[in-house]
Design brief:
Rossmann fold, alpha/beta, 16 helices, single chain, 25 strands, 9-stranded mixed β-sheet, 3 domains, GMP Synthetase, Chain A, domain 3
């Protein structure tokens, strides 16, 4: 079987590259950057991933230089583009203008890597450095307004470098670029997920041996498919499900999950009511990283408690989880990757169990779309397989908490600069919010401020201006649109924590939104629709604001804003504003990157 090696320099999209290659029928493997060249000589091609570092930094990751002597096609992406140029004696420097978001690419050469691609393309940029001098024997094959050497090539050696990210869906020609690279590699298209499933089942049998598995199951697609794989590999009698009601579920979700699991034949299921434990443990917790760590460790404590209550012999049992690739990558799960957020299934206690070989994760190498395909191959119902993703910590990471206002330094001066930029739109104005949210830029985690903009506008204008604002102002990593807001005199923060009344408030708001989406038959069109509660009010009205965050995606590693029609937004907003404590309805108009899908 022909294979492509992806050298992972810590980019948030390294595994997404492999996923894109696999979708084209060629098996791709993730390899460490320092993999010796002799171990790569039998691969049909090598891809150098992006990463959060600069090639001129001390201790930045390198590859074995001898890979360039293997007579194998090589494609460098972002950091990989820089590294290839650097190692081939070109020059890389900090870019005068950092690019995070869409850019117009002009192709100015008939390179095979751009075969069957129009000369003008929208591509996705996420970089702070640029190749300033191309190496000898390389030529420039594409440029953008702010990046002269956006793509380079040594056609004779079949070396290609691109500054943008062809692996994210925002780069429309990305699949064609990978197709062209596979043609250049002369790679056979002979890999599919059925083979993966067979190998995974064999692996589970060998890894688990005579032990049994205690599986944390939420009713979501990842944990349910994982449970089904384990049952197929080990038999029903050796797999036991634990559903933990954290108190942060959506409206009536516990009942819906129990019903759905019974309908697919899950027999060994224990339901544990942990609301009191979660509420008390998260009291006075405000930081999102600490919140996620508390939740992850509490899951482990409850697992141990239930195991003890059920008198399970710890030496005979392993813990099963529905971890997927994005969880491991965003948690800093590869050697050089930056931690974006610690997923609840990657806390310290879990990492220790992994070292001790006490964890089994059947889908940890897959992305959401691949997990869905596996679910269908296993015969799971489509309504379960295509259910919208819901985070393990539940609504706890959709309820922002604050004990004091948190503005960036000189925020009034920042607002003046923001509004000078917004003046080009004629109608829009903006205010910085006194809270922070998590984002990802240049493969690094950001924890910065959202900006609310308001005034008459269009979808195209909102998307364009949000990208400009985030690129220009480092204090901002997310832009929300204040629906129906004509003026903001003041913004006030409500001192708040994860209290039960706020949970019920968000459950009510979330149900209004989900009912509206179901009524419009948009559930399958929208990849995920977080509804977020912010402890912020405007013009002294109400206490809290609701953020609508519908996104379109294929794999959660990158996501675009889903554009609901304005009449649907108005209907949702009108229904939400009837709730006494709601001050405003905001629409998140930021793609991923630079914002993450969830706010925390």
């Amino acid at each position: 079987m022909d294979k492509i090696a992806v050298l992972d320099f810590g980019g948030q999209y390294a595994h997404l590259i492999a996923s894109r290659i696999r979708r084209q029928g060629v098996y791709a493997e993730i390899k460490r950057p320092k993999t010796p060249a002799y171990l790569l000589k039998n691969y049909k091609g090598i891809i150098l991933s992006g990463g959060p570092r600069s090639v001129f930094e001390k201790n930045s990751p390198r590859c074995d230089k001898r890979i360039f002597d293997l007579n194998i096609p090589i494609l460098g992406i972002c950091y990989g583009h820089h590294l290839m140029a650097f190692l081939q004696r070109g020059y890389v420097k900090p870019a005068p203008t950092k690019e995070f978001g869409p850019a117009e690419l002009t192709i100015n050469d008939n390179s095979h890597i751009f075969k069957d691609i129009d000369t003008k393309q929208t591509v996705w940029m996420s970089h702070g450095d640029s190749v300033t001098v191309v190496p000898r024997n390389f030529k420039v094959i594409a440029s953008t307004k702010d990046c002269e050497n956006a793509a380079i090539a040594d056609e004779q050696m079949k070396f290609y470098g691109v500054q943008f990210h062809p692996e994210v869906t925002h780069t429309a020609c990305g699949d064609q670029i990978f197709n062209n690279f596979l043609e250049i590699c002369n790679a056979k298209r002979d890999w599919d997920l059925s083979e993966y499933l067979e190998k995974k089942i064999a692996y589970i049998k060998d890894y688990v041996r005579d032990r049994r598995v205690f599986m944390l199951i939420s009713g979501g697609v990842d944990s349910t498919v994982s449970f089904a794989i384990l049952e197929k590999a080990l038999g029903k009698e050796r797999v036991y499900g634990l559903f933990v009601d954290t108190g942060f579920m959506r409206y009536q979700e516990k009942e819906q999950v129990e019903k759905a699991l019974k309908e697919i034949g899950v027999e060994n299921l224990h339901v544990y009511d942990a609301k009191k434990e979660f509420y008390s443990s998260l009291k006075n917790v405000y930081d999102p990283e600490i919140k996620r760590a508390v939740i992850g460790n509490l899951f482990l404590e409850i697992k141990d408690k239930v195991s003890k209550d059920l008198r399970l012999n710890i030496d005979e049992w392993m813990l099963g989880q529905g971890t997927i690739y994005p969880d491991t990558i965003e948690s800093g799960g590869t050697q050089y990757s930056s931690r974006i957020k610690t997923h609840h299934n990657r806390v310290e206690g879990i990492q220790e169990l992994i070292k001790r070989k006490r964890i089994i994760e059947p889908v940890k190498e897959l992305y959401k779309d691949e997990v869905r395909q596996i679910g269908e191959k296993l015969g799971l119902p489509k309504e379960l397989v295509w259910r919208q993703p819901f985070p393990g910590p539940g609504l706890a990471v959709r309820i922002l908490c604050a004990k004091k206002e948190n503005y960036p330094p000189n925020h009034l001066a920042l607002e003046r600069q923001v509004n000078m930029l917004l003046a080009e739109t004629d109608n829009l104005k903006g205010k910085v919010l006194p809270i922070k949210s998590v984002g990802v830029q240049g493969d690094n985690r950001t924890y910065r401020h959202p900006l609310v903009i308001y005034g008459d506008t269009t979808w195209d204008e909102l998307k364009n201006i949000s990208t400009k604002l985030i690129n220009q102002f480092k204090e901002i990593n997310r832009v929300v649109y204040g629906f129906g807001i004509s003026n903001i005199e003041n913004v006030q923060l409500s001192l708040s924590e994860l209290a039960e009344d706020r949970i019920k408030l968000l459950q009510k708001a979330d149900k209004i939104v989900q009912d509206a989406i179901f009524e419009k038959d948009l559930t399958k069109d929208i990849w995920q629709f977080p509804v977020v509660l912010l402890p912020v009010n405007f013009n002294n009205q109400g206490k809290e604001s609701i953020v609508l965050r519908p996104v379109e995606s294929m794999d959660a590693m990158s996501a675009g804003v889903y554009e609901l029609d304005w009449m649907t937004v108005k209907k949702i907003a009108d229904d939400l504003l009837i709730i006494p404590d709601i001050s405003a309805v905001l629409y998140d108009v930021t793609s991923k990157p630079p914002a993450t899908i969830e706010w925390e």
